[in-house]
Amino acid sequence: MKKFLIRAILFSLLIIVSLVAIVVLVSPLVRGKNDYVAATIDKESRLHSLPSPKIIFVGGSNLAFGINSSAISKEFNYPVVNMSLHGGLGLSFMLNEALDGVKKSDIVLLSTEYYLDKPELKLLTQLMDANPNAKKYITLKPEELIPFYISDLQRCVTSSVKVIGKQFSDNIYIRNGFTVEGDLVSHLNKKNVPLVSPRLKEIDYTDDLQLINTFIDAVKKKGATVYYLFPTYQQSTFTLNKKVVTDFATLFHKNLKCPIINTPDTFVYNDSLYFNSEYHLNKQGREIRTQKLIEILGKTF
Questions:
Q1: Which CATH class for the 38-118+172-300 domain?
Q2: Model confidence over 120-179: pLDDT tens digits?
Q3: How much is the pTM?
Q4: For residue 69, which of 39, 80, 229, 256 is within the disulfide window of CB 3.0 to 4.6 Å?
Q5: Residue by residue, what is the 3-state secondary structure of the chain?
């Protein structure tokens, strides 16, 4: 039995080393400098270079697609950085990345998608390849290493096929589709994509809430302030999942260590105002939400 375990461990290490070697050799050849996740490079640069006090938006794509940071900056005379990108990067990454650049007197506005949890490994591989600095914000468990490198290998193969076939990413999910502040605007003049309302799954959120509260405590220790905002949500999806959303809100009101400055229905709009996801506002929806957000922040600051 002992020999078998040793052989299994050695075989696993061999697989990991082989996968890492392949990825290291292939990645530079297929790296997409304009990939969507490469926008984290620009967001991190702005976060660390802006003077304080500043407004920092932290969350998933509901913020990336759904606010006009320039309008908010003009209204309150604070520089703004929208750190938000994609919920698939996971709660831990987005909190760690933002916290690294928080300074005294900053205002952090946190708005996560409902039951945002673990990251998508393939997306993390894209991120860590496009932005090596992101590695310090990501922690992988031992049991995640082999799946992670398999995902990375798949990414390299897929990217290689695209390069050989001269196929490149679309003109929406791209690094240069963002404003200086970090808002995605490449979709604003596109037609809406037909949407189906997905059913929201309720999960045990104890560990995730602890992660968020640890982030809130760390922000406060830096002399900054953090507020929570429930995200924007398509009307039909909100109606379908109202009980789950209500349970989520109750959980947050009972446990969150920072003020919650809106309600789950604050940014719920007609389906026609969403572009290609229940969280992604189109041009008109983005402006409506921004004006409502400015109204809320005016009563908060």
A1: alpha beta
A2: 888 888 898 899 999 899 877 776 656 666 665 565 556 544 444 444 456 899 999 999
A3: 0.85
A4: 80
A5: CHHHHHHHHHHHHHHHHHHHHHHHHHHHHHCCCCEHHHHHHHHHHHHHHCCCCCEEEEECHHHHCCCCHHHHHHHHCCCEEECCCCHHHCHHHHHHHHHCCCCCCCEEEEECCCCCCCCCHHHHHHHHHHCHHHHHHCCCCHHHHHHHHHHHHHHHHHHHHHHHCCCCCCCCCEHHHECCCCCECCCCCCCCCCCCCCCCCCCCCHHHHHHHHHHHHHHHHCCCEEEECCCCEEHHHHHHCHHHHHHHHHHHHHHCCCCECCCCCCCEECHHHEEEECCEECHHHHHHHHHHHHHHHHHHC
